[in-house]
Amino acid sequence: MVGISSLEGTLFATAKPCPLCGGKPQPYDTKKKLYVILKTPTGRKKIMVNIRRFKCKKCGNLIYAEEPFYPDTRLGSAIVDMAISLARLHSYSHTAEIMKALGIEIDRGSVRNYALSNLPIPPANFLYGMQLPNSFISLMTKEISGSKGSVSSGEILASSGYPSGYKPPLDGKNTSAEFQKQKKRKNKQ
Ligand SMILES: [Zn+2]
């Protein structure tokens, strides 16, 4: 998983104006956040990214930089996309097994939570016989085509679809939860 490990240490430091009052964000501090744990030949490796936090100049509201995470999720968005994408065709436990075989630490319960959430079905392509999300594929190919550390935070956000700004549709359409409900219904027929 070379592509994912190139995220290590990337700083995300771009914030939008304050969502409460439209005020200007001023840098406040930087938090480390776990993107994923990889299993490598030399052991477990935590991939950490740095997220800058800002305070609104006008109202003091705490604002996070745009980050490669969906709201209220623990793992990086390309990893979540992968779980959701693989769970379209495979069971939750098989999805976890496939991801583990690729060196990504994840359990069945997490796969299930993501698959049954109101997160979107990510656009995907078949690669190595697996339905992989484009977000993940583009992280992989960026690393292969460039030198180490060449992936910028802007590129990561763009190829991830700016996940921290995601708002679930009110009607639940095109979410993973809706897809899984239909899959269950079809399997019963
Ligand atoms: Zn404000």
Describe the model.
- The protein is α+β, with helices and mostly antiparallel strands and 189 residues long.
- It has one domain.
- The protein is 34% helix and 23% strand.
- The protein has helices spanning 2-5, 77-86, 92-101, 108-115, 134-145, 153-160, 176-188; strands spanning 11-12, 25-40, 43-56, 62-64, 124-127, 130-133.
- Strands 1, 2, 3 and 4 form a 4-stranded mixed sheet that branches.
- The model is unreliable at 144-149 (pLDDT under 50).
- The structure holds zinc ion (ZN).
- Residues 18, 20-21, 23, 56, 58-59, 61 line the site of zinc ion.
- This is Transposase family protein.
- Residues 162-189 are annotated as: Disordered.
- It comes from Methanocorpusculum parvum.
Short characterization:
The chain is 34% helix and 23% strand. The chain is of the alpha+beta class and 189 residues long. The protein has one domain.
Please describe the structure with a list of short key phrases separated by commas or semicolons.
189 residues; alpha+beta; 4-stranded mixed sheet; two-stranded antiparallel sheet; binds zinc ion; Transposase family protein
